[in-house]
């Protein structure tokens, strides 16, 4: 650093380390805090970080602590001390430990009445020193800290010394949690700290019990306890101190810190070992009930929250321990009742209370523990706790109720979201868990309540009460099998009696019907009761999501029984689509619903319904196609294309499973199909010319092209071999599209077509021509520079791999430049995009597996395989992310399996040059890697381990902390 005399405080990059002086550090700190130029600040910060770890730090840090300096400078000095002790401990000679300790004690005493932030950093520095020296070099470290600060001296008043000692004792366990001790030392030091608790606990208890202890001291005592219990100090050794903490809970100033200390103590994993202490703490927690009720009456949400946290910490963390104490079952039952009170605390979450949500996990835990006992014990516990779980259902459904309309209207959007999307969903999950314990009896219970509610003419039910009970049914039916329940027919009868006068109630009615779709499939006679409700709701934009998703579920599950209702469903759906009642995503779901519906109809009915359904959209598409392209009509075009592709996604008359198209299994030809072309094919052939015309106008727009390709991709996936009549014309159109403007969606569709039709003799010719054309066009992209098109390269590699896997004969063609494809693969291995590299590795593993059967592949591997090895080794040497090493290992394994003799030569030649694939590996390490690789021709897992080990060596990470993570 050179101090510029005309502009004091300005620093430049230091020419050498000797310039880390007190004066320069102060100038750099001034620049860091006060220079308005952000670059100067960054420069100063970088320099200060170097200063802090330099050997000179030992000189300047003490000088920076001098009393006349400002706190920011003193803080830097204290922080530098901590950095040196914690990170460079091995640089400190052992004969200086004692003087360093004495100086730190002295500085802490000086700062006990000074800056709090400096005092804390000095305490952390001394804590670090203690952790590095205990137990051997500094046995009884904590006892000595207590003794030093209890002695009179230094003119520092007792209260300040006491607070400094408590700060030191608080940061000591915290520093242990974050320090960088080796694993074996961590265990030793943890044990030593545990033994030191005997010196800390009496001091904390004494300070907490003294009536003359100031509030600040008691608060620090409680924070100190919180810190120490995280070391898993046995609960029995803190018992009396914890009892004192309960006494402090009545003090509003200390409530939060006392509560945190108790919660931390009760939440420690080892606390269940101290059974007797836990049993003594149960009455202490139960004694808080009066304070809890007072807080509820006074609307003191924070106290409610805190007491609930204590109650749940004991109940949730010690459930099994307390359940097993059969002699004390009544006190645990009382604790469970207290948690029940917290679950049902008055008010609406999250506006008037935030406590009830804390308890929900407890009910899972209690149920799991009870159900895990052997049968005899479980039966005993169920007798006691089943009635409580029925009570819990009532409490939960009461909490799930919406508030009065006027109150709900006053809530913020965030509060409504918290209530509906988080809290009610948590309640729904809890009810599902409860059902696992209570079974069908729970549904009967809910049904009886709903029946009484809806038939009580004297006192009409509020919509909130009805909705909550239905929500209970929906929560259970949505995820669990309720087919054997005998109350569902009655429930459907009750649903039709509900006076739906609120949008939330209407939503829940819809979702409940949707949750019963599988049951309706087994009881189709009930469809007539619910379909009119769903179709009526379909016309209400406020019920868009619930009505459309419910119709989709019914059409998917019950399609075999829907033909009598088909005309009505199609007519209502068509009307809402034309009126544009629903948003785009719901329109897509609606089309999927109609696809399921039409699948079950006779072919002539499908065609008739298809024409009436899509004709208005086709006419609109024709009109839009003839307009000049602009952003507005683009959205409309994509919307209509989306409607068609979603309809064709689910319209499957062959009843065969939808193929994923990932090459995992060849699609099976259906044995019996209706005569004549598939209705989807008929429609696609009719609109094909229109789509071609549309593409001619929009070929530059990837979103429109993607939407067009999606129609055919969904159709091919659903129809598989039924799509055959269109293979030739679609292949021709795809070739023209890709030749004009190459796009990923066209490549993906080509891959889909190749997967299904390349193995069929009658379709091989158009698929082969398309594959060769697409390959040729993509190779020209590689010649021009493929870096701007990683998505195309990725999809192209997937296509080539699919071709190798499905129909390697494609590579026998003279029109296909196999050598160029291989070279493009080698180039693609060096791309920075992980998906592209993964696809390329998959391509090479497929290629190497086929080279013995396909002569052109064998030739290119023989001639250019060394380039592949070099690219793979370069990646392993550090050229590719470590997360991709398994994929490169797969390529090496494939080479070893299929080209062993060539690989042994290539490996030797490729690893010959010094510094390749990394400067960090020696010739011997490269030789070992090569030998290990060549030995493994069967065990792929071992090859992956060898590659991982070698890449760590290449990156200089072998033996570091990263190795364990890897």
TrEMBL record:
GO terms for biological process: optokinetic behavior; protein import into nucleus; retina layer formation. Its main location: cytoplasm. PROSITE patterns: IMPORTIN_B_NT. The keyword Iron does not apply. The keyword tRNA processing does not apply. Keywords: Cytoplasm, Nucleus, Protein transport, Repeat, Transport. This is Importin-13.
């Amino acid at each position: 650093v050179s101090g510029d005399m005309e502009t004091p405080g300005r620093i430049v990059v230091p020419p050498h380390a000797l310039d880390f002086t007190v004066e320069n550090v102060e100038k750099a700190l001034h620049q860091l805090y006060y220079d308005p130029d952000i670059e100067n600040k960054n420069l100063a910060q970088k320099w200060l970080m170097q200063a802090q770890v330099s050997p000179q730090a030992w000189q300047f840090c003490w000088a920076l602590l001098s009393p006349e300096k400002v706190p920011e400078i003193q803080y830097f000095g204290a922080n530098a001390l901590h950095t040196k002790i914690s990170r460079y401990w091995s640089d400190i000679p052992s004969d200086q430990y004692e003087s360093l300790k004495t100086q730190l004690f002295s500085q802490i005493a000086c700062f006990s009445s000074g800056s709090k932030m400096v005092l804390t950093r000095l305490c952390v520095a001394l804590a670090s020193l203690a952790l590095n020296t205990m137990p051997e070099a500094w046995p009884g470290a904590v006892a000595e800290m207590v003794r030093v600060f209890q002695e009179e001296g230094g003119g520092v008043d007792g209260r300040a010394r006491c607070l400094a000692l408590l700060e030191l004792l608080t940061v000591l366990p915290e520093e242990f949690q974050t320090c960088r001790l080796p694993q074996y030392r961590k265990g030793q030091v943890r044990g030593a700290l545990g033994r030191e608790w005997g010196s800390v606990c009496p001091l904390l208890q004494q300070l907490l019990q003294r009536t003359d202890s100031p509030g600040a001291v008691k608060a620090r005592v409680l924070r100190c306890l919180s810190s120490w219990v995280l070391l898993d100090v046995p609960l029995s050794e803190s018992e009396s101190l914890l009892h004192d903490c309960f006494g402090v809970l009545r003090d509003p100033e200390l409530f939060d810190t006392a509560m945190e200390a108790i919660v931390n103590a009760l939440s420690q994993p080892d606390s269940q070992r101290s059974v007797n202490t836990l049993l003594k703490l149960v009455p202490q927690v139960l004694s808080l009930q009066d304070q809890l009720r007072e807080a509820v009456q006074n609307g003191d949400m924070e106290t409610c929250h805190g007491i609930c946290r204590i109650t749940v910490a004991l109940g949730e963390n010690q459930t099994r321990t307390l359940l097993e104490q059969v002699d004390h079952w009544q006190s645990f039952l009382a604790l469970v009742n207290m948690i029940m009170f917290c679950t049902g605390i008055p008010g609406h979450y999250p506006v008037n209370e935030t406590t009830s949500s804390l308890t929900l996990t407890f009910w899972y835990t209690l149920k799991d523990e009870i159900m895990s006992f052997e049968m005899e014990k479980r039966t005993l516990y169920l007798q006691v706790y089943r009635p409580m779980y029925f009570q819990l259902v009532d409490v939960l459904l009461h909490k799930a109720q919406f508030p009065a309309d006027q109150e709900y209207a006053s809530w913020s959007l965030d509060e409504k979201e918290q209530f509906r999307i988080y809290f009610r969903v948590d309640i729904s999950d809890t009810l599902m868990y409860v059902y696992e314990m209570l079974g069908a009896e729970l549904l009967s219970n809910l049904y009886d309540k709903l029946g009484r509610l809806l038939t009580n003419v004297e006192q009409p039910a509020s919509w909130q009460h009805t909705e909550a009970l239905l929500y209970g049914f929906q929560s259970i039916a949505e995820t669990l099998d309720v087919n054997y329940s005998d109350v569902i027919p009655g429930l459907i009868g009750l649903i039709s009696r509900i006076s739906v006068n609120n949008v939330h109630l209407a939503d829940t009615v819809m979702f409940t019907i949707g949750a019963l779709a599988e049951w309706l499939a087994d009881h189709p006679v009930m469809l007539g009761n619910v379909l009119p409700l769903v179709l009526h709701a379909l016309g209400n934009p406020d019920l868009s999501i619930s009505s459309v998703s419910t119709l989709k579920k019914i059409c998917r599950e019950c399609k075999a029984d829907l033909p009598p209702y088909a005309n009505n469903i199609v007519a209502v759906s068509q009307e809402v689509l034309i009126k544009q009642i629903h948003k785009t995503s719901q329109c897509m779901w609606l089309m999927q619903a109609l696809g399921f519906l039409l699948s079950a109809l006779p072919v002539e009915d499908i065609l008739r319904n298809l024409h009436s359904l899509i004709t208005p959209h086709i006419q609109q598409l024709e009109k839009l196609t003839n307009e000049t392209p602009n952003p507005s009509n683009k959205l409309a075009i994509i919307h209509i294309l989306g409607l068609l592709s979603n309809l064709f996604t689910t319209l499957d008359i062959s009843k065969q499973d939808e193929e994923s198209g990932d090459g995992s299994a060849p699609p099976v030809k259906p044995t019996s199909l209706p005569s004549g072309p598939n209705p989807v094919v008929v429609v696609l052939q009719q609109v094909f010319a229109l789509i071609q015309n549309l593409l001619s106008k929009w070929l530059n727009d990837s979103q429109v092209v993607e939407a067009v390709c999606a129609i055919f991709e969904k159709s091919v996936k659903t129809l598989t071999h039924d799509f055959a009549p269109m293979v030739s014309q679609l292949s021709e159109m795809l070739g023209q599209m890709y030749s004009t403007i190459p796009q990923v969606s066209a490549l993906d569709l080509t891959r889909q077509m190749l997967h299904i039709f390349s193995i069929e003799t009658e379709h091989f010719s158009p698929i082969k021509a398309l594959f060769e054309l697409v390959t040729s066009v993509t190779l020209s992209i590689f010649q021009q520079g493929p870096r701007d098109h990683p998505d195309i390269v990725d999809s192209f590699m997937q296509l080539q791999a699919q071709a190798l896997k499905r129909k390697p004969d494609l590579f026998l063609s003279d029109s296909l430049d196999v050598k160029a494809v291989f070279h493009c693969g080698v180039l693609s291995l060096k791309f920075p995009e992980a998906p592209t590299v993964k696809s390329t590795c998959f391509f090479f593993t497929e290629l190497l597996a086929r080279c013995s059967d396909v002569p052109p592949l064998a030739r290119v591997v023989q001639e250019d395989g060394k380039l592949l090895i070099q690219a793979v080794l370069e990646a392993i040497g550090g050229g590719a992310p470590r997360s991709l090493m398994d994929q490169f290992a797969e390529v090496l394994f494939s080479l070893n399996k299929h080209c062993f003799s060539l690989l042994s030569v290539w490996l030797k030649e490729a690893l010959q040059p010094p510094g390749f694939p990394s400067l960090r590996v020696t010739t011997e390490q490269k030789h070992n890697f090569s030998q290990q690789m060549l030995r493994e021709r069967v065990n792929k897992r071992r090859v992956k381990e060898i590659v991982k080990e070698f890449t760590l060596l290449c990156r200089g990470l072998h033996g570091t902390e990263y190795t364990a993570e890897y």
